[in-house]
Fold:
Amino acid sequence: MGRQQADGRAARCSRAAWTGALAGALASVVLVASAAADYALIGHDAPDFALHATAGNNVRLSEHRGDVVVLSFWGSRCGQCRMQLAALNRSFKTYHSAGLQVFGVNVDDDQGGALEFARTEALGFPLLLDPGKAVARAYLVDNLPMTVLIDRGGSVRQVHRDFSSKFEPAYLQQLRVLLNE
Amino acid sequence: MLHVAHLGGFLVLKTAAVRFAAFAIGACILVPHPSAWAQSAALPAVSSAPAASAAPGAAAPQAPPASPLTQAPRAGAAAAGGASAEPGTGTRGLDQDIQGLKKDVVDLNRDLFVLEEELLFPANTQVAVFVSMDVGEFFLLDTVTLKIDQKEVANYLYTPREVEALGKGGVHRLYLGNLKAGPHELVAFFSGQGPHERDYRRGATLRFEKGIGAKYLELKINDRQRRQQPEFEIKDWE
Structure:
């Protein structure tokens, strides 16, 4: 009898855990989808740009047509930006061979912070400098961090404002969809 | 209803008639791309000639075995009788129509591009500035900034691929705009890495007279071997 009650409790707990996880996943998908809904560039060609990198060569977006490109707009004084860049670095290492390109676009007026960050953090992808904010304006950046996902055809497909580690699975799922196209 | 799909350089064309024939013989008909037709038609002749020359005294070489691509239509023809030749010619004609339409679109696009250029940049006011580079051993180009009459009109960042293309003889159109007739001044700033990988920035100036016709100017980056330095000049194409 006691054993049956224990089994029932375990089943209820497991059901509750599944329900919670499902609700969380749905909520994150809804949040991610709502973030993309009001972005004017969705479905349009990504504005082309060429920027200096903190280290290495200049980068022109149009040269990466055929790859899935993630643009992450960030500032050196934004803590969430750093978290997001670290998460993107993990994704980049995993999916780079499948055609993923990640570019961190720094929008600081003073490039010192970005250069220092690039020196201390060993990121695998290029960090670009946009002190004039021309690229940030072209991509309608209104929040930091902000991430734009561009498909292999060069169209803007997704945008994420803000970052939280709980959204990471949803981001990865979107990335995988784009990489599989 | 027509389904067209690329399959390794071949087009798979399935019309209703072809489907019927395929159903009859239980095979799918593959029709090669027109560019491949000529090639496939030439293949037996090319392959049989060396065989004949290699063994002049031998018996006449057997015809090369037909590939599955050529076998399938023959099988279809055999199965469906004389009427099955029509689907092949039909699909061929359809493919030619598609190719013709594609060519028309390309031609139309070209005409529109020319028309746009003529409207936006009429020949009597047009000014075009090009960048070219010879060798580039002493200078690794990074940016070119262009000023015409003290006004910045272009600022272009070059990627390694673009620099490589310039080194191979490519010419980049940096600026296309309009200027009224009369005297003008063009200043170009080149920045990049100079000898010994040092940051390098140089300028070049040209005063030119804009006449009635279009004006073409070329920013040339050359290596001066004697001085082991890059050289920048602006050439006025008359």
Q: What stands out?
A: The helical segments of chain B are 16-25, 34-54, 68-80, 85-120, 160-167. Chain B touches chain A through eight residues (CB under 8 Å). Chain B has a mean pLDDT of 71.
